Amino acid sequence: MTSDDGTIPARIIRSLPLGVTAGAAVGALGGMIGLGGAEFRLPLLIGLFGFAALAAVIVNKAMSLIVVLTALPARLAAVPLADLGSHWTVAANLLAGSLLGAWAGASWAVRMRTTTLYKVLAALMVLMAAALVLTHTTTLGTLTLPGPVQTIAGVAAGFGIGVAAAIMGVAGGELLIPTIVLLYAIDIKTAGSLSLLVSLPTMLVAFARYSRDGSFAVLGANLRFVAVMVMGSIAGALVGGLLLGVIPDLVLIPSLAAILLISAVKLARHASPSV
Length: 275
Description:
Structural class: mainly alpha
């Protein structure tokens, strides 16, 4: 249970080892599929640690931002910034939509009724599960679109991804990577690095919008918890990266998708303003 301002009860705050463990589990899951794992963190923040919906989104956004900032140097080592320079128009195209989408999504989230936000989060969990399966179990083709149409499609896709990422408090790589591959015919490794370059400013915009809302105080009230869970997430991501490929995708991906779908059902069943 949470208090009215979305803070964690004392009995959970004192259980910092649980926060580290949960963060490590989330990081490991994300690391095994090359993502940050924020989509798995969100239902834990709500169901296990008792955050209300909006408070969970804000805390998840803060953690996602730190994890992305940590992952960016390693990702750029794998795909140097110089190699991404030739694709700057792709990032600019998506950012033209995602920055607006992030501001709009955060604005909508803070104005939604809590019960509505739970339902929206549940629907987005289903979307993330579908994107996960699509990206990791199929060979993504590419769309051949005329230049102006491709630009419009990029802005529209960026806007939608910005909205979804802001409302869930995630980086959005699950949606950005397949979008970059489909729209711009870029290989998936490069797409992963480009997604970070798009998601970082997009997350900063959403974070700035959330900072204007009273619910943002949840971060100040739970700094120790956020810190230990982030440390667990980073450590778990490193372990997950080492385990990459150990579990076959035909087993791992359906299992992770099932976790997201189960989480979606649980979120949809929330009927009270806070849990």
